[in-house]
Design a protein that fits this description.
- The protein folds into 2 domains: 9-69, no CATH class; 72-162, Multidrug-efflux Transporter Regulator, Chain: A, Domain 2, CATH 1.10.1660.
- The protein is built from 6 helices and 7 strands, in the order βαββαββααββαα.
- It has helices at residues 18-25, 48-62, 78-85, 89-97, 114-137, 143-166; strands spanning 9-11, 34-37, 43-46, 67-69, 75-76, 104-106, 109-113.
- α1 (18-25) packs across α2 (48-62) and α3 (78-85) packs across α4.
- The chain is extended.
- The relative contact order is 0.08.
- InterPro entries: DNA-bd_dom_put_sf, HTH_17, SinI_DNA-bd, WH-like_DNA-bd_sf.
- Residues 76-125 form the Helix-turn-helix domain.
- One of its GO terms (molecular function) is DNA binding.
- Pfam families: HTH_17.
Length: 167
């Protein structure tokens, strides 16, 4: 089999993905281990991370979505990390300097392990969800109370503006 070129590639959904979707949805013999069968009948175990990727791709295609596969190096530049996190490059540099993610220097360039960027993203998401949950459970969650607080705050800001412009 020829090697597949390593560049971003988009795959369109295929109507024949249904049986594969069903086969990957059910773990083999009560475990999460799956096997591929070679042309000679040999069973080859599929690594867990590969299985997760296959399940995600097949699930998306089963739902009629196109899938883009973008090969990534295990080490990223600050720009690649920024793109992955959805933030600016200076923000990533600040995170590195603040010790939020470990990195190595190669000359005057910073290199970040993909694993560390993904771990930071997961920590950040967990913190964001916790903050949202805390807001949702606060007593000020009543829309009328929040609206009254906003009105009061706006009036206070307007009064301060008037006081500084007339002085």
């Amino acid at each position: 089999m020829a090697a597949t070129p390593l560049h971003p590639q988009t795959y369109l959904p295929d109507a024949e993905v249904g049986p594969l979707h069903d086969a990957l949805a059910v773990p083999a013999a009560g475990s999460d281990q799956q096997y591929l069968v070679t042309g000679t009948g040999e069973q080859v175990p599929v690594p867990l991370e590969t299985l997760r990727a296959l399940r995600q791709v097949i699930e998306a295609m089963h739902q009629g979505l196109a899938v883009t596969v973008v090969p990534q190096s295990k080490t990223l530049t600050t720009q690649q990390a920024a793109d992955l996190l959805g933030v600016s490059r200076p923000t990533v540099i600040k995170l590195l300097e603040d010790g939020e993610m470990p990195f190595e220097r190669a000359g005057n360039r910073r290199r970040i392990l993909l694993h560390d960027v993904l771990a930071y993203r997961e920590r950040r998401r967990t913190q964001q969800y916790a903050a949202l949950e805390a807001l949702a459970t606060a007593e000020e969650d009543d829309p009328e109370v929040v609206l009254d607080q906003l009105r009061t705050a706006r009036r206070a800001v307007a009064a301060r503006r008037r006081a500084t412009t007339t002085s």
